[in-house]
Amino acid sequence: MKIKKILVSQPEPSSDKNPYAEVAEKNNVKFEFRQFIHVEPIPTKEFRKQRVNFLDFTAVVFTSKTAIDHYYRIAAEMRITVPDTMKYFCTSESIAHYLQKYIVYRKRKIFYGLGKFPELMEMLEKHKEEKYLVPLSEQHKDEIPALLEKHKIKHKIAILYQTVSSDLTDLSMINYDVLVFFSPSGIKSLFKNFPDFDQKDIIIASFGNSTAQAVRDAGLRLDLAAPMPNAPSMTMALDQFIQEHNKCKK
């Protein structure tokens, strides 16, 4: 069967002019979008049980914009004024710039890496005298605390939010030719909503190594794994895959 309908486990792009729209028009396919997961805050009452005092730390490590939002949410709810002397270490420039939502950027000491946590470690090692607070999701990557421990960085993990499965029970997976996933949590959500999910001829596409492994661990057949050398984005990988697949099905 030709590919005609694709479900992407992410929110729909805000603009009509986006890569998915281009792939849809080019290949005469239809994309639908649905968040398989969403973020929920850890209530302040639950956070207090972690016995973490923001003011005990001289620096904060941010791995996402969501972590920044929930750090300042907790600070506001607990009436904590983050001191001007606080230093910020971010995994990417875009995350660092997001701090402008809460602080006067040019007046603070802000450092950032190239996008991945291991790259940020070199910067943290140059500032080993700091005491780091690391706000994370309940479902964070194990490599983050592991690397901090390995390099003997003084730190404390603070769980400020969690990723949970969205309710998808109004959907029927058999209506789609392709399911596109971007995180292991998306695979978890699929089976939480559809415990008896049977892949059959449905094509599974994944982005990133951890997502690809989650597909395999779930006993599913992985048909398309992105990124690839000739397709660094999911839309490019889908474009190539759809063309090849539909050509064979003529």
Keywords:
250 residues; alpha/beta; Rossmann fold; 2 domains; six-stranded mixed β-sheet; elongated
Task: Give your account of this protein's structure.
- With 250 residues, this protein is α/β, with parallel strands linked by helices.
- The protein has 2 domains: 5-36 and 169-248, Rossmann fold (3-Layer(aba) Sandwich), CATH 3.40.50; 40-163, 3-Layer(aba) Sandwich (Rossmann fold).
- Helix content is 34%, strand content 22%.
- The chain contains 9 helices and 11 strands.
- The chain has helices at 19-27, 44-48, 65-77, 93-98, 117-126, 143-150, 184-193, 209-217, 234-248, and strands at residues 5-8, 30-33, 37-41, 59-62, 87-90, 109-112, 132-137, 155-165, 178-181, 203-207, 224-226.
- A 6-stranded mixed beta sheet has the order 3-8-7-4-5-6. The protein has a 5-stranded parallel beta sheet with strand order 2-1-9-10-11, sandwiched between helices.
- Helix 1 (19-27) links the parallel strand 1 and strand 2.
- Helix 1 (19-27) runs parallel beside helix 9 (234-248) and helix 7 packs parallel to helix 8 (209-217).
- The termini are close together.
- The mean pLDDT is 94.
Say how many strands there are.
11
**Any idea how many domains?**
2
Please write the CATH class name of the largest domain.
Alpha Beta
Averaging pLDDT over every residue, what do you get?
Answer: 94
What portion of the residues fall into strands of 2 or more residues? Answer: 15-25%
Shape: elongated
Instruction: Tell me the major beta sheet.
Output: 6 strands, mixed
Number of helices: 9
User: In which order are the strands of the major sheet placed?
Assistant: 3-8-7-4-5-6
